[in-house]
Design goal:
The protein is mainly alpha-helical. The protein is built from 6 helices and no strands.
Length: 183
């Protein structure tokens, strides 16, 4: 992600380019998060029937509670509605290495998911910073910013307000509160 400053925003083209860049970075981060989520889900669904790890061990590896593992299994595993699914745990000698490998694989997938979620937060914060910067520069209006970043126009205004940017009002527009008599 490029660090855009107000000095770099000299015209509408550079402002639009900066907005497109942060939108792309956020989309890539969200796609990566979705891939990591799907990967963890697939790993849980494929690991549980093998009987190498208990649900509690899987939950410990992932860093969540056992209900999280059960909800993934219920939504995606081979279950019968209304029946409790039990998986026999394999306790034969020599399975310890495979169980350790399964545990480490689950832990790695969970850590990758956490990193991906962190990248989404970082990309969203950068997008919000650039949106506020462009709005404050008055190069583009909220509708043009919203169309470029693919968010709602009102959300652009919320982002700007949160960043402390005062609202931009058009000088030539008039409404019911505009006084033409100088008052």
């Amino acid at each position: 992600m490029d660090a855009t400053t107000s000095a770099e925003l000299t015209d509408q083209a550079t402002a639009t380019a900066a907005l497109i860049t942060v939108r792309h970075d956020l989309n890539v981060s969200v796609d990566n998060l979705c891939d990591r989520t799907d990967g963890l889900r697939d790993l849980v669904v494929s690991t549980r029937p093998k009987g190498l790890l208990t649900v509690d061990e899987m939950a410990t590896a992932v860093g969540r509670d056992r209900n999280y593992i059960d909800s993934i299994w219920s939504a995606n595993g081979d279950t019968t509605k209304g029946k409790q699914t039990r998986v026999q745990i394999d306790i034969t000698p020599g399975v310890g290495e495979a169980a350790r490998l399964a545990y480490e694989t689950l832990a790695d997938a969970a850590n990758a998911l956490k990193r991906a979620a962190s990248m989404v937060s970082t990309a969203r914060a950068e997008r919000d910073r650039v949106v506020a910067l462009v709005y404050a520069s008055k190069l583009l209006g909220p509708s043009a910013i919203a169309a470029t970043v693919q968010v709602d126009r009102n959300h652009v205004l919320r982002i700007a307000r949160k960043a402390g940017v005062p609202p931009v009002h058009r000088v030539s527009s008039k409404n019911q509160y505009t006084h033409t008599d100088g008052n």
